[in-house]
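Throughout this chapter, every protein is written as a compact record of paired, labelled lines. An example of such a record is reproduced below:
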Amino acid sequence: MDSIPWILVTILVIVVLLAVVMVVVVRKRKQPRRLDYRNYFVMGVVWLAIGVSLLLLPWFLHEEVSLSIGGFFLVMGVTYTILGLVNKEKWGKQVEVPGTTTRNMMIAIIVLAVLVVVVGELLVLYR
C-alpha cells in the first residue's frame, strides 16, 4: 500500500519531464506553424455529435442518472465549431484525395459503422 504514492509521484514526474521536453522542442522550431481553423471546425462538429449522444444516452436507456460528460463535449463542440466558422477565411487548403483512396475509406467507414451499431445493440440487449 505504501508503494502507490511513489508510483503516482513517478508518473507525475515523467509527465512533467515530457511536457518540458515538448516545450523545448516547440520553441526551437524555426518556423511557427499556421493554425488550420478547418480542423477546429471538424473537431467541433465531431464533439457536438458525441456530446449530444452522451447527453441523450440516459434517456434512451431509461435511466435517471444524467451523464455530465456529455455537456462538456457539447460545450467544447460548440466552442470549436464557432472558432472554426469565425476564422473561415484562414482555413487551410483542402487536400485532394485520389478516387481509390476515397472508395476504400468509404468501405472501411461503412464496415466500422455497422460494427459499432451491432456492438451497441448487443450491449443494450444483454445489459
User: Anything to note?
Assistant: Residues 34-92+121-125 form one domain. The chain has a mean pLDDT of 81.
